[in-house]
Design a protein that fits this description.
258 residues; flat; 2 strands; mainly alpha; single chain
Length: 258
């Protein structure tokens, strides 16, 4: 199974790729924080955020279509959570729907809040995609460790990335085995089969985790993330950090004044 879909463009050479992972992690954190704190009526500020992301994508030389396509993955989850907000928020009604004996109205404030949440989620996921597309997973984990993030959290991220592909392969093999033995039957029977597959996958994952952990301990694993490439904080990182802070500070100031 091909398992480079997260950082398949991380081996390119660009200004963003050469930055220290700590610089990019902090910049993404500040960007998401600024986006989250922006009021829902300040569309010029959201436009500024989008321009900033567009500039970073251009400097990173990562294909725009690749980033755009991956960013659409978050949309269904946001819609699932926020689709009913326009109908539950009070305010000036903009549309009324009759469902059997019920009359449901969508408010202007609720629709505005719905669009705002959607835009914030999309901008946040765009920044994360730029981060993972320009930095290898090992460098990201090493940067998290240098920033003194909890070691347990870094270890969980590391194992999750390394073994999610192993589990995916396991699911594909189990599915192929199920399909080769499938001779029809009721829908209830298929549900029972999927439940049995989920239980088997859990047991296999737990046993594999125990074996992997014992093997790592026997080879001297001490919980630290190591990478062959060394990243240092350079002048480019300082200039990039100043530019990001100035843009986000201007956006926050505009948000505060309005």
């Amino acid at each position: 199974m091909k398992h480079s879909f997260l950082d398949q463009y991380s081996d390119r050479d660009s200004l963003i790729h050469r930055l220290d992972p700590r610089t990019k992690l902090i910049a993404v954190f500040l960007f998401i924080l600024a986006v989250s704190l922006t009021s829902q009526v300040l569309w010029p500020v959201f436009s500024l955020y989008f321009v900033l992301i567009a500039v970073l994508v251009t400097l990173s030389t990562v294909p725009v279509f690749y980033i755009f396509k991956r960013s659409l993955v978050i949309i269904p989850f946001v819609l699932l959570i926020t689709i009913f907000i326009p109908f539950f928020k009070e305010g000036e009604p903009i549309a009324t729907f009759h469902i059997w004996t019920w009359q449901v109205s969508a408010s202007y404030f609720g629709l505005q809040l719905f669009i705002t949440i959607l835009v914030k989620a999309w901008l946040s996921i765009l920044s994360l995609i730029v981060l993972t597309s320009t930095t290898t997973i090992s460098d990201l984990l090493h940067g998290m460790e240098q920033l003194r993030l909890p070691r347990v959290m870094v270890m969980i991220f590391s194992f999750m990335y390394r073994y999610i592909f192993v589990l995916t392969d396991e699911v594909m093999r189990m599915r192929q085995a199920r399909d080769s033995r499938n001779v029809g039957g009721s829908r209830l029977r298929h549900v029972k089969t999927v439940g049995a597959m989920a239980g088997t996958l859990f047991i296999r994952s737990y046993e594999r985790g125990e074996r992997v952990y014992a093997a790592m301990l026997s080879r001297g694993y001490d919980g630290h993330t190591r990478t062959l490439r060394r990243r240092d904080f350079r002048l480019a990182d300082l200039i990039f950090s100043i530019c990001i802070v100035l843009v986000l500070a201007a956006a926050c100031l505009f948000n505060y004044l309005h």
